[in-house]
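Hi team,

Filling in the usual template for the complex we talked about on Friday. All components are listed, including any nucleic acid strands or ligand strings, so the model treats them as one assembly.

SUBMITTER: L.P.
PURPOSE: interface mapping
COMPONENTS: two
RESIDUES: 204
SEQUENCES:
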Amino acid sequence: MDGAQALTDLTEISSQIQAAIVLDADGSTLATTVDEQRGPEFAQGVQELLAAVQRAAGDEGGGGLAQAEIATGDGSVFLVRDEQRTIAATTGPEPTVGLVFYDLKSCLRGFSEPKPKPKPRARKPKTDDEGDAAA
Amino acid sequence: MPRRRAVAGLALVAGSFAGAVALRRRSARRRDRVDVYFDDGSMVSLADGAPEASTVLPLARRILETTRA
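RESULT (copied from the run log):
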């Protein structure tokens, strides 16, 4: 799935999500909903946040961390990881946590799965009538 | 006499406002926390004021500011 499209779908599905970003394992931005000016700062902040959460939770290697919610009075920041990517999203205060995690995981899965190729249509065998009509 | 009443009314309004602000700040602070979920299904919750959370929460606030600017 196209990265930008996946995030557009995410923000359409989940009205609670205000901004989102998907980072590759090396920290490069795969897709984001924020503009080009704020994008790099958002990506940098998410990387720093992920490292800080891993340190705080005693998961220095980062192997075991699956997801996190950092809740503040102004809003929450969500992090969800798979083997290759990290998705981060911001919401307003007191979001529906389970729903946001579910939407973020679905979006991340969309990045991982290859786009299904359209199946070739089975050709309708020519009938004798059609063959006669063409002739 | 009416002046004294007006002053008392103003003091009451100001006091209520200050109380509401303090209550709002206190409840907002109580909401601040870091919930971390691991692959094995375990979970750690770090409340505001915990030394581990002190580095994480300011970073999250900065991200919220960046995305809303």
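MY TAKE: The helical segments of chain B are 2-31, 53-68. The mean pLDDT of chain B is 87.

Thanks, L.
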